[in-house]
Amino acid sequence: MPGLEVELHDASDQQFMHCSCSGLLRALREGPLLPLAPGAEVYRFTWIPSSRGALVVRVEHLGPVHSLHVKVSGMEEGTLVVDRRILLTPTQWRAVQQHLAAARFWSMDRFFASRGLSYLDGATWLFEGGREGRYRMVSILSPDPAGPAGAIHDLGAFLVELAGVPLTPFGLY
Has this prediction a pTM greater than 0.90? Predict the structure, then answer.
């Protein structure tokens, strides 16, 4: 995306991120997205704030069924405060697709640099997707809704809104 710098993570950074995210997803009882059933499509947004429980919103399309599964972890490892699944309408699924397209999910760089900023606090926004046998992951730290990553922020905010989960007074950051 124009105006965003790619942050190249070395193998050690990538391994740490993989291990920490995998552990969190296991604690939330979230499995791998692949392999997919033929014709299926799935996206998962994992919001990992530095000082409170994480949130996962997974949307899936399989045949005529569109669904959303939301999980919110408690402060103690392995506890779930929210764990529910809802059916989405075709209109809601199309809106998800429009947000994915606006964020250029399948074509953007996988990691974004902070443009020279140092973060003392923040949240990791991890987006994963699977369709047609492909898998994609995008990670960004606290995207600025008014900045070049605004569309990715809008995608995450839309998924949280669809999930109907009230966040802390701080909202998404």
Answer: no
